[in-house]
Amino acid sequence: MAAADPSLDRRFMALALALAGRGLGNVWPNPAVGCVLVRDGHILGRGWTQPGGRPHAETEALARAGDGAQGATCYTTLEPCAHHGETGPCADALIEAGIARAVVATEDPDPRVAGRGSVMLETAGIEVARGCMEDEARALNAGFLSRVEKGRPHVTLKLASTLDGRIGTHKGDSRWITGPLARARGHLMRASHDAVMVGAASAVADDPALTCRLPGLDGRSPIRIVIDGSARLPTSHALIAGAGDSPTWIVSTQKLGGDGRHAGWREAGANVISVAAEADGRPALKAALEALAGRGLTRVLVEGGGRVAAALLGAGLVDRIEWFRAPGAIGGDGVPALAALGVDRADDMPRFHRVSSAALGEDVLDTLVPAD
Prior knowledge:
Layout: H1 6-20, E1 34-39, E2 42-48, H2 57-65, E3 73-76, H3 90-97, E4 101-104, H4 116-123, E5 127-130, H5 134-140, H6 142-149, E6 154-161, E7 166-168, H7 180-191, E8 195-199, H8 200-206, E9 223-227, H9 238-241, E10 248-253, H10 254-258, H11 261-267, E11 271-275, H12 285-294, E12 299-304, H13 306-314, E13 320-325, E14 335-336, E15 352-360, E16 363-370
Parallel strand pairs: 3-4, 4-5, 6-12, 6-13, 8-9, 8-12, 9-10, 10-11
Antiparallel strand pairs: 1-2, 1-3, 7-14, 13-16, 15-16
Helix pairs in contact: 3-4
């Protein structure tokens, strides 16, 4: 076999990562994986995790390559699975196909795999190169990794405000603060997340559909989640009435379930998740996120409102912020993007690194991650 070429490895792994991205928001509870089979510089087969998590990327790539996989190099963004599920392990399938080399971006932290997939390949005499574009692979599958390693989904907080951090006027008017390009980007974010979450106050005030309404992506709408600890959402609300067409989950407290207020939501077709309450009666958000992870969710996009956003930030439960800012100001009597955080000293405020900044027409989108 010719000596490995690091530049070629990165080129084909970059393609595998691009393929993996097609599955984001559509493959939970599984990771979004991409796979490319290459021999003598020619691509023989490509694959990515299919909707619902099956078939796996390696299975798809092998099916396209056929007998051509013999002697090929397999580029996969996540270590091949080593356990039996609905089908046999992908590591076994690669061995049986006769690949000569595997380039693996990152290890699968699932306890059923955790290095075993790569070891199975090596035991069969297949050369395994680990860590090619590992940072990029881990960033792409941050949701799956968070569910396995932290026991909760990866949380992205999406905010759309004026320059002075207001999301509405003192009379509650908020349409439209940002322009069409920013709103389209927001819908694209919905398509790449498993679920979109809002607080009950926002759901009642704004009457959001929480669906993806981009041409060609109407089938990529996420699970709709409402945090409602005081039964504010009536069964007549569009989110509940439409739960049969667009699945809706209500996160509430165990206390409300005891007096029967969950029954109406369930009868209307919504899925109700009961968690313990905080001292102020609101659902405990850490417990809520753990419950969502237990149901397989890996990526949650939080769109409002200010109290939910502040509670998540205060608890250190935000992994990423997507902040759209419009070039205008409403003033101090407007509705703030964040409720009170109770910060006494500037040194104590949650801090973030700006990962990127992009102009969307007249608006600006800042992407930030926690500084620590």
